[in-house]
Amino acid sequence: MFGKKLTTALMLSMVMTAGAQAGGRMDKMIDALDLNDEQITQFKALHQDKRNNKSQHKSERKVMKQDFVDLLDNYSEQQASVLAEKAADMARKQILARLQQTIKIYNLLDDEQKIKFKELMKKHGGGKHHWGHKKAHMGHDG
Description:
Blueprint: H1 2-16, H2 25-33, H3 37-73, H4 77-108, H5 111-123, E1 129-130, E2 133-134
Antiparallel strand pairs: 1-2
């Protein structure tokens, strides 16, 4: 029983830390891709949309954290399973949003910049890093 509780706790804590973000990535990407003024304007608009959606994700994570805390005092396999499904759905939505954001940025680029963008994605591990920032829940250094 304790092992299942620990597994659930670890999984939920990984989702909870998924939203942590570091600053400065936008400027680094602009510089690395040598964006022109029009691309910078579009890139910043996409970044602002992302920031506007961030508060919704933050609220969802806060609710999930409280549900997890509540589960500690009144644990049941059924409720743990429900929370695990919610956590998986939340993670799926965040990954899809990140991928949609990435393709929007990619579509702003010219052919030469797309090559550089792909190189940057390979260098930073694609899903492991987003714009060069470590995902603490993934446990990667880099």
